[in-house]
Amino acid sequence: MKIHIVGGGAIGLLHAGKLAQSGQEVIVWTRTETQAELLQKEGIKLEALDGSVRNAALNSHSLSNLESVLAEDPEEPAWILLTVKQSHIDELLVDRLKRLSGPHTAMLCLQNGIGHLDKLAHALPKLALYAGVTSEGARRIEENGVRHTGKGQLWFGPANWDKKDENLQNLLLNVLQSAGFSVGLSNQMRDRIYQKLLINAVINPLTAIFDITNGELPRHPSRIKLMQSLYQETSTILTADSMMLAGDGWQLVLDVCEATSANVSSMLSDVRSGRETEIDWINGGISAVAKRHGIPSPLNDAVTALVKQLQ
Ligand code: KPL
After folding, report:
1. Among candidates 126, 131, 121, which has minimal Cα distance to 155?
2. Which of 37, 74, 87, 95 has the CA that lies 20 to 30 A from 285?
3. Are residues 169 and 268 in the same domain?
4. Is the distance from the beta carbon of residue 112 to the nearest atom of ligand 1 less than 6 Å?
5. How confident is the model at residue 167 (pLDDT cuts 50, 70, 90)?
6. How many domains does the chain have?
């Protein structure tokens, strides 16, 4: 099975590298021609958790060359793994996804935050859409090199139930498992997305604002107070929108800070590199949910405004 991975960031390259190493035919679609050429020429360098580095060959193209690539190889993909950031899901990309996919294609979306699934379901009504949540840690260290920084778990499940395809989902499950991923199918993807959102809503903006690692965040009483208040507000909003929380959410936030203690959050990393952050789809998305329910969201509004000042 050919697996098309759209996005050459850390999560895209981690999946591409592990899948290619396990013998799958992988095609990576990147935003820049330089990255596509490097991946095509030199393959992907994957640094595993034990520090060993292995190369794997794959095919890579720039999204801007989609038309000419499809003219030569029009075979419709069984699976597309969409790993780009929320901010990159614009009209142009949606149009390209429409052209890349066929009537039997399924797409797994691995974005942080909320908003993308509704947008994609509306724009691509024929596609079987799957929502995914992953806790794998990865860092892109070169245009064609990625370091696996933490073992995680991937959950995925249907986002538009009428298009659910059991054969295709089992195929992807097996392929990902054979590539060494811990992966499970879930019928509760909305809850899983909301639980991850709750964690990201507290850790990401505060680490970006204070310019500190995840581990440093809860190491000061005043920061703990801010974390707790933002957690409380966010969990009230998401619970009003039917989130079912498995376990103690506040403890989960602290556990993630501890488990990823040396990491820089993706939002801080974006701020430091001058890239657009995902604030509009994390805390901005929560403010939008609050508005729908007529609940105030002063802290989510405030961190959204502050992070926008930084980016
Ligand atoms: O998902 C993350 C992110 O940085 O986006 C956390 C869980 C906060 C780990 O860094």
Report:
1. 131
2. 95
3. no
4. yes
5. very high
6. 2
195 within ligand 1 shell (Cβ under 6 A): no
194-240 pLDDT per residue, tens = 999 999 999 999 999 999 999 999 999 999 999 999 999 999 999 99
| CATH code of the domain in which 117 resides | 3.40.50.720
Residues 166 and 220 in one domain: no
Helices and strands: H and E segment counts in the chain = 12, 12
ipTM: 0.97
Last residue of a domain, one of 187, 222, 242: 187
Domain assignment of residue 23, given as a range: 2-187
pLDDT computed for residue 247 by the predictor? 87
Question: Given this model, what pLDDT does residue 1 score?
Answer: 86
Count CB atoms within 10 A of the CB of residue 273.
7
Residues 135 and 211 in one domain: no
Nearest ligand 1 atom, CA 112: 5
Surface-to-core class of residue 118, CB atoms within 10 Å of its CB (0-12 exposed, 13-18 middle, 19+ buried):
exposed
Distance, CA of 156 to CA of 40 (rounded, Å): 29
Do residues 298 and 245 both lie within one domain?
A: yes
Pair (177, 199) in one structural domain:
no
Tokens of 79: 């699976």
Name the pairing type of β-strands 53-56 and 44-47.
Answer: antiparallel
Residue type, position 240, single letter: A
Say yes or no: 57 and 120 in one domain: yes
Calculate the average pLDDT of the chain.
96
Any ligand 1 atom below 6 A from CB of 265: yes
Closest ligand 1 atom to 268 CA: 4
pLDDT tens digits, one per residue of 44-76:
999 999 999 999 999 999 999 999 999 999 999
Q: By alpha-carbon position, which residue is closest to atom 1 of ligand 1?
A: 200
Specify the pLDDT at position 163: 86
296 contacts: CB under 8 Å, gap ≥ 6: 290
